[in-house]
Amino acid sequence: xxxxxxxxxxxxxxxxxxxxxxxxxxxxxxxxxxxxxxxxxxxxxxxxxxxxxxxxxxxxxxxxxxxxxxxxxxxxxxxxxxxxxxxxxxxxxxxxxxxxxxxxxxxxxxxxxxxxxxxxxxxxxxxxxxxxxxxxxxxxxxxxxxxxxxxxxxxxxxxxxxxxxxxxxxxxxxxxxxxxxxxxxxxxxxxxxxxxxxxxxxxxxxxxxxxxxxxxxxxxxxxxxxxxxxxxxxxxxxxxxxxxxxxxxxxxxxxxxxxxxxxxxxxxxxxxxxxxxxxxxxxxxxxxxxxxxxxxxxxxxxxxxxxxxxxxxxxxxxxxxxxxxxxxxxxxxxxxxxxxxxxxxxxxxxxxxxxxxxxxxxxxxxxxxxxxxxxxxxxxxxxxxxxxxxxxxxxxxxxxxxxxxxxxxxxxxxxxxxxxxxxxxxxxxxxxxxxxxxxxxxxxxxxxxxxxxxxxxxxxxxxxxxxxxxxxxxxxxxxxxxxxxxxxxxxxxxxxxxxxxxxxxxxxxxxxxxxxxxxxxxxxxxxxxxxxxxxxxxxxxxxxxxxxxxxxxxxxxxxxxxxxxxx
Length: 567
Fold this sequence. Notes:
Number of helices: 23
Number of domains: 3
Largest sheet: 7 strands, parallel
Helix content: 40-55%
Radius of gyration: 25 Å
CATH architecture of the largest domain: 3-Layer(aba) Sandwich
Distance between the termini: 52 Å
Shape: globular
CATH topology of the largest domain: Rossmann fold
CATH class of the largest domain: Alpha Beta
Oligomer: single chain
């Protein structure tokens, strides 16, 4: 068993008792406005942050993680007037944090770290702002942490707490973001992660997040994997050399994991997760349905051709591996060597830059783009989804405020044209809208303008957004990550929503990757539910235990390709 290097905190029994309360309230605080009234569970969350120097607040999206963090800081600031707060968040949430500070607190000053300052831009502008920082709170995005963590630590001084909003941003343990966040957290007196999706894909992501916030909680990554994962050795040939790479064996345990009860016990003192339906009865309930359509003839032909390309490449690779093994095993007859040379030429073509574009992920993405519409790959032809989208927004949902999610920002253009043609007001927030002010204006337009009925969002652009005015979310394509699905739902299902229910509509092409995604995302929900509980009651029920999303989807498409070949 792996050693847990961080002990259970002495206050843990107190935390367990605190979690049972339904009536607890805060006393007055000079930094919280009189109009700021926290619900009982928000008081409990803030008290957890005050009692623990390091933890994750993992409440469901829309339940008020921001106000809990600000309440905790307000009480800590009252005790220690020199304490600074660093908020690291997504680009889309910079101004939202500023608005929340102004809404809930008084006497707390804040600064948003901008990319321009006077006549300077980029690092020069940020460096000038670091030197000028005198406020209580500094709000910034994740990108500056990659290379400027020493400057940030110097600006914050020796007495600061840090809140990493959307903490899954540093779930990759080998990334520069993870390293930068580790440096900032190490210099902080207090470090907290806020995330409704601590587990987006795997338990290794939890290890990475806690390696930043509570270093040593699960020991090192080797011990972690020995304790909590089933692994198998995968033999691969990389640049002519055979490599043995350990891989999670998803056929065993719970999606490849074991000792989940021990995992939860280790995690429990340092995480607080409350389900929406348990703590906020006023949240709108979710109603889900699929709008199943069928690809049009031109679209279906493109899709079939794409699948045929996938099966050809996979067949060549598998035969090459088999013949290579024969040659290495001593089969040197003329026929075998000739076939080996032919296959090697084709195989090496797949390893070129052009060939790599047709890798698993690229192949899946290509099929998803065709399903969304031929225009996404530069081909002519109508899209079955665009036709269904037009019907939904112009006929069925004429009185609704609608969030439209898609992974592909290039596909938004055609949908905007449809809205313009039908005289439907719209706006968008995508990853390439870099200005926090522009994002904030788009959000305000959707929330406040009665003529703006549709907002288009992508995964990169939607994190931390409050879009309570929405009564409908259309998934033009369903996120491949269950965590991203939950995040998107949370844009509308929030405290403060005026809706009694939020309708989720998944537009799905029959017999396509869309239906496969709906099944494959299942395993991620099952793993998340096992550790943290059901975080999105009312969303479509993804429950089957499947393999990893990308590999699983690719195998599904191979199966589809074989089926089409026989038609």
